[in-house]
Amino acid sequence: MEIGRSNRSRFYETHPDVGALRRRVLGRLAADPNRHFYFPNVVGGRYAPGNIGAIRYLLKCVRDDTSDIVELGSGWSSNLFQLYVGLGRTRSETIHYHGAEFTKSGRSAALALAAHDAHIRYGAYHFDYRKPDLSFLPEGKGHVLVFTRHSVEQVDLISDELYSQLAARRRPITLVHIEPVAWQSDPKLLRKRLKDDAWFFGWVKFRMARGFLTGRNQLHNAAWWSWRLGYNVNLLAIIDRFREKKLVELVAAFPDFDAQANIVNPSSLYHIQFLNDETAG
Ligand SMILES: C[S@@+](CC[C@H](N)C(=O)[O-])C[C@H]1O[C@@H](n2cnc3c(N)ncnc32)[C@H](O)[C@@H]1O
Fold first, then answer.
1. What pLDDT score does 224 carry?
2. 267 falls within a domain
3. For a substitution probing ligand 1, which of 129, 154, 157 has the most ligand atoms within 8 Å of its CB?
4. In a domain, 114, yes or no
């Protein structure tokens, strides 16, 4: 399980002598150390920033009134099962877990795994980002935590209907994306992707293959990976549009925080709160 220590900042509260070291190590990041997302670590014999990890972050988004947790593009729902283990069986008595997945194999693997536990309230549903249908999510008053993890990435253009359907619900909704899309905030890279500029991405690959580490190569290489596989190009634009319409608020963003699985496909985290009228329903 990818859980780790539940409150890493407590260590620095009880050991103030180490606080200066923490500030120096995290000082290399633009991030606010008080956000409790990054913490000092040791990598290869040197101090370096680490992060609390996606599952621990999602666990922190669960509220006392959370009644539904939904993963979109959930595969075999390993993230949901980790949240279930992290929250525990007693807390999970009042939580429904929903795995919304495109493939039948993903849905049946998840159902088979869930059947090993006699207690989890788990359902698997067909879901497609191109034609999103959230009707599996019941009406109700409880808070809903929806998240995605490297599944939006798979679809070049997702439908903004997803956001419209969530905005139309009359219950508190948190949406957390953990997706490799930070490069989309660079207008030049986005233009190159939208133009399918093979010459530009050939140049990026040429430099990457020779190990260039200068400037904004990290963003360029991530855009190249996304171009190579026809990955998502419109998630950040949708978030921006719904922010402009004042339907959502961006609570926190941690661009490119981890790339251990694939250095050229780094995860970014966008924590969004829907501003729907929680009291009307
Ligand atoms: C890299 S896997 C990640 C799975 C899971 N989120 C995880 O972290 O283990 C990508 C997932 O996206 C799903 N996917 C691909 N196309 C999709 C689509 N059009 N709509 C919804 N999910 C899709 C795949 O079936 C797969 O489960």
1. 97
2. yes
3. 154
4. yes
Which of 210, 229, 248 is at the close of a domain? 229
On the 0-12 / 13-18 / 19+ scale of CB atoms within 10 A, 27 is exposed
Ligand 1 atom with the smallest distance to the CA of 73 is: 22
16 and 84 belong to one structural domain: no
Can you give the residue range of the structural domain that contains 27?
Answer: 9-52
pLDDT at residue 280 tops 60: no
The total domain count for the chain is 3
Residue 31: the pLDDT is 63
Cβ pair 40, 26 in contact under 8 A: yes
Average pLDDT, the chain: 93
Instruction: Provide the pLDDT for residue 281.
Output: 39
Nearest CA to ligand 1 atom 27: 75
Q: Who lines ligand 1 at CB under 6 A? A: 73-75, 78-79, 101-103, 106, 127-130, 149-151, 154-155
Residues 33 and 112 in one domain: no
**Torsion of Cα atoms, 97 then 103 then 107 then 113, to 10°:** -110
Is 82 within the bounds of a domain? Answer: yes
Q: Output the residue whose Cα is nearest ligand 1's atom 17.
A: 102
Tell me whether residue 253 is in a domain: yes
Q: What is the residue with the minimal CA distance to atom 8 of ligand 1?
A: 149
Q: Return the ∠ at Cα 237 (arms to 75 and 102), rounded to 5°.
A: 20
Per-position DSSP letters for 160-174, written without gaps between them = THHHHHHHHSSS-EE
Confidence at residue 86, expressed as pLDDT on a 0 to 100 scale: 94
Q: How far is the CA of 245 from the centre of ligand 1 (A)?
A: 28
Q: What is the position in ligand 1's atom list of the atom closest to the CA of 158? A: 19
Whether 171 and 107 map to the same domain: the answer is yes
Give the number of the atom of ligand 1 that is nearest the alpha carbon of residue 151.
12
- In this structure, the strands spanning 267-274 and 173-179 are antiparallel
